[in-house]
Please model this.
Amino acid sequence: MVTYLGTAFSLQMIPPEAGEVTIKVRKLTVEEAREVLSGGFISVVGHEVTARVMEKLLGIKVPINRTTIRLSKGDVLIVFQLLHGRTEQTGS
Model:
């Protein structure tokens, strides 16, 4: 089982050979997210500003890692979303 921290979920994260899958979604508090991530995680956060906001909220280092992932059975993806718009990005 791998725990990922990212900013979005896509059906492309599920390998085609996985067949039928069940996806569970639930809202976490900051404290719950911090607890899950305390066991170790792989960041799939691609924007520096977003990573810094996450660091401030979670109190943990969030590396910038713009990459594509494939989820396997048992993996966990914590998706961070701002509810009041987007962060300003500099560059691309």
The chain has a mean pLDDT of 91. The domain at 3-16+28-79 is CATH 3.40.50.11170 (Rossmann fold).
